[in-house]
């Protein structure tokens, strides 16, 4: 946990006239899990997408591994070993599980041996995917689709994994499995993770550090444990309605 | 099959005589409303241009009665055939498994038969000509399949590339005297170039919007061909396009012809047979290239693009080049087919490249099952062959044709061959039936 892998400086981004990010600063160190929490419309997904240049930052900088990637074309960013599991999973429904995973490997510059090794790793994390390997993506359950989306992202052998709401619409037990897999990836494979979640409790327990985004601005940041103790976090995201 | 369930006549609601009669009565009422002006009143311009009209209540009454009776019959059929409906549920599993085995050998059997067609029907010029026509549409269907079936880009102007190919060969050969075998790749390259040219402005469009722009593009090409008289000959077209040669050896009765060289008597059928095998080779080339491409990253990227563009971007796929290569590849095959069309006809004019052709090729792709090579071939055979089959019925031909299409779309909403064979495997190949996936999920 030393050098900064991703540094976002004063990032602004907008959809037409509506400014979704109003000067965000965020840092992810190598080997960290960072959680980004916030209410609906706070700009969490926008921040994640703008790392990939969609929407393109209107001002500010995104520095990845020492290189400014603010203006790098979207398809080239994925080749810099940043992978993304987009919101709503977005697997390819008519293509088989094997093809979905292969799509993740296609863009990266991986050798055949590396690809086979990564595939084994994905199957070790999510044995369900191996059972369903020839099944169409669209016939999988929600949890399996989320596993596939993460597995597909892992196939490019990323250094930084961006996860957008991995627990969305999943049963608590399945969500726990997904979070466990993320923890395993971080501890055993040294993968750096940025996770966007509405499920603040889960995300902050998993993360080393967290950021709270409100209306396009970071209002709080700190270690996961610290944030979990903050009364305003508890009120807004954990015990909402009871206060 | 789930989409074809009649929602009202099964399940909790009991179906009685009253219900059937009520439904039939309502149908008849709608028919009366629709036809009272269309059929009930006949208008015509009189001798001095004045409006003449007379009523045809007898015809109207019989039509409404027909709708009434028809509605009752449909409801009774639904009642008797059980609530599950659809063709699949009538067929016992044993027959279905037999059909799937037959399906596995269908493609090779069809291919062998196609190779033998010129041998079997050597003396039947009509059948050979029909075969060439069907194969031309098979090739066009396979070409469009790359754009529509694989990449999911709805292209209503495919005929533009067919026209570019045809005019490329027609003009290059008549103006510069280039041979067919030199012009064929040139026609493909030019068509691909126009494919890219169409691709650029429509990169950000999808679905309906893309369809409209491609439709306009097809019309623009046709209008340019009509109006650019100096180059294209306008509505008169290009005539005297050279016939193809067997790598330089002409298929003519003269001294240097193929027949004379082989020492066999000349027959005009030789050329027809040659054309048949030429288009067969071109079509098979299209098929082979498509199948190969599907197993490469670019082919997978096309299919992924059809499924989800946002996910493609997140995976680092360059959307621009992926779309443009799909347009270019599809257009190239259209161009090859166009060059063949020009050499077969010897004469081309803008009339051959109307929107109707685009619609026909698109219908072949959709009817065949988007993305399925075998399905497209079967659909081309059914559509073009079926068209000829009902030629004797003259006026009813289009009616039968439309009805057949509606029925196929009800029974097989994913097309004749709805299966999609995966291209990446861990161990062994397995194709997944379309029935396992909900309708509308790709």
Automatic annotation (TrEMBL), chain A:
SMART domains: AAA. It comes from the Bacteria. Pfam families: ABC_tran. Keywords: Amino-acid transport, ATP-binding, Nucleotide-binding, Transport. CDD domains: ABC_TM1139_LivF_branched (cd03224). Belongs to the ABC transporter superfamily. This is ABC transporter ATP-binding protein.
């Amino acid at each position: 946990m030393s050098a900064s892998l991703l540094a976002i400086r004063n990032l602004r981004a907008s959809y037409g006239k509506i400014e979704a990010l109003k000067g965000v600063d965020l840092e992810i160190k190598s080997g960290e899990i960072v959680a980004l929490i916030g209410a609906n419309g706070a700009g969490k997904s926008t921040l994640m997408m703008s790392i990939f240049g969609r929407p393109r930052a209107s001002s500010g900088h995104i520095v990845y591994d020492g290189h400014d990637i603010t203006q790098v074309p979207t398809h080239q960013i994925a080749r810099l070993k940043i992978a993304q599991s987009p919101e709503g999973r977005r697997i390819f429904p008519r293509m088989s599980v094997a093809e979905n995973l292969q799509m993740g490997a296609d863009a990266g510059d991986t050798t055949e041996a590396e690809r086979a090794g990564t595939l084994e790793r994905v199957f070790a994390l999510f044995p369900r995917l191996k059972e369903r390997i020839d099944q169409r993506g669209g016939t999988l359950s929600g949890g399996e689709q989320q596993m596939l989306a993460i597995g597909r992202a892992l196939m490019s052998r990323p250094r930084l994994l961006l996860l957008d709401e991995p627990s969305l619409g999943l049963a608590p037990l399945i969500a726990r499995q997904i979070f466990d897999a993320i923890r395993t990836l971080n501890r055993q494979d040294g993968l750096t993770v940025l996770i966007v979640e509405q499920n603040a409790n889960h995300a902050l327990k998993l993360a080393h550090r967290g950021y709270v985004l409100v209306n396009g601005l970071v209002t709080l940041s700190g270690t996961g444990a610290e944030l979990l103790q903050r009364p305003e976090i508890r009120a807004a995201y954990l015990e909402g309605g009871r206060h | 099959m789930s989409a074809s369930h009649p929602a009202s006549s099964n399940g909790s609601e009991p179906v009685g005589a009253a219900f059937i009669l009520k439904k039939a009565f309502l149908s008849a009422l709608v028919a009366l409303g629709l036809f009272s002006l269309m059929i009930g009143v006949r208008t015509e311009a009189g001798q001095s241009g004045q409006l003449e009209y007379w009523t045809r209540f007898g015809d109207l009454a019989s039509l409404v009665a027909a709708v009434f009776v028809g509605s009752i019959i449909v409801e009774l059929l639904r009642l008797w055939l059980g609530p599950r409906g659809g063709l699949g549920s009538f067929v016992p599993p044993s027959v279905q498994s037999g059909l799937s085995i037959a399906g596995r050998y269908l493609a090779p059997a069809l291919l062998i038969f196609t190779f033998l067609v010129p041998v079997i029907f050597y003396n039947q010029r009509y059948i050979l000509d029909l075969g060439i026509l069907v194969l031309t549409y098979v090739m066009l269907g396979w070409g469009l399949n790359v754009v529509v079936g694989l990449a999911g880009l709805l292209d209503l102007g495919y005929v533009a590339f067919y026209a570019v190919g045809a005019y490329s060969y027609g003009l290059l050969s008549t103006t510069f005297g280039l041979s067919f075998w030199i012009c064929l790749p040139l026609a493909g390259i030019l068509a691909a170039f126009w494919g890219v040219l169409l691709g650029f402005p429509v990169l950000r469009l999808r679905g309906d919007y893309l369809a409209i722009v491609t439709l306009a593009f097809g019309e623009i090409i046709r209008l340019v061909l009509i109006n650019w008289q100096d180059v294209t000959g306008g509505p008169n077209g290009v005539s005297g396009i050279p016939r193809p040669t067997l790598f330089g050896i002409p298929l003519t009765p003269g001294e240097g012809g193929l027949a004379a060289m082989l020492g066999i008597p000349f027959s005009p059928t030789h050329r027809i047979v040659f054309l048949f095998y030429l288009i067969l080779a071109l079509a098979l080339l299209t098929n082979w290239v498509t199948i190969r491409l599907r197993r490469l990253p670019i082919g997978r990227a096309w299919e992924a693009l059809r499924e989800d563009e946002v996910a493609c971007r997140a995976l680092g796929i360059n959307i621009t080049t992926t779309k443009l290569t799909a347009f270019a590849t599809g257009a190239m095959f259209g161009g090859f087919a166009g060059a063949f069309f020009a050499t077969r006809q010897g004469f081309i004019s803008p009339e051959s490249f109307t929107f109707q052709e685009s619609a026909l090729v698109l219908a072949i792709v959709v009817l065949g099952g988007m993305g399925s090579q075998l399905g497209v071939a079967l659909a081309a055979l059914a559509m073009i062959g079926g068209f000829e089959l009902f030629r004797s019925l003259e006026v009813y031909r289009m009616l039968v044709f439309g009805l057949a299409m509606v029925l196929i779309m009800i029974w097989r909403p994913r097309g004749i061959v709805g299966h999609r064979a995966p291209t990446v495997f861990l161990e062994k190949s397995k194709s997944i039936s379309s029935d396992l996936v909900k309708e509308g999920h790709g």
